[in-house]
Amino acid sequence: MPQLILASTSPYRRELLGRLQIPFQVCAPATDETPLPDEPPVATAERLAVAKAAAVVESFPEALIIGSDQVAFCGTQRFGKPGSRDNAWEQLRSLSGQIVVFHTGLCLLNSKSNRSHVRGVATEVRFRELADSEIQRYLDKEDALNCAGSARSEALGISLLEWMRSDDPTALVGLPLIALAEMLRAEGLALP
Description:
Layout: E1 3-6, H1 11-18, E2 25-26, H2 41-54, E3 63-74, E4 77-79, H3 85-95, E5 99-110, E6 115-127, H4 132-141, E7 161-166, H5 177-186
Parallel strand pairs: 1-2, 1-3
Antiparallel strand pairs: 3-4, 3-5, 5-6, 6-7
């Protein structure tokens, strides 16, 4: 079995990949995540997924490398990781009652053959109308500063949502496992 590398520092992606029960290593990709001028959010997520996988190829010349990136957007506004409580508050106020698309780009790069599989998986999420007191309680209980849109759906953030729609429920957390499993099988890995 070829070496499997997750080109990501995300603990959420690491936890998700662990569900497949395949040995893997983690390597931090040195990637500039700045969107290109006039680049649509969907294109940004998929371009960065490829860039993250490619960023570690020299270190792993005979491996299967996974790159993933997620961009959250509502209309023309993007919502990244808030980084601070004040930014998280502002994001949640803006997203209250809105439908947000979380587009997750995924790349599996075979560094030996230079073959790559790239896919985007969208998740639509409708936030409930959120009262300021609800946002306050949520931010008091949940560390959501490292999550696009400030809501961790795999934890307490699920209580902020009315609904979510996706072909892959793990895509919202940052690593679409249904798509990844398909890509891994295409590269010859035996999965149940």
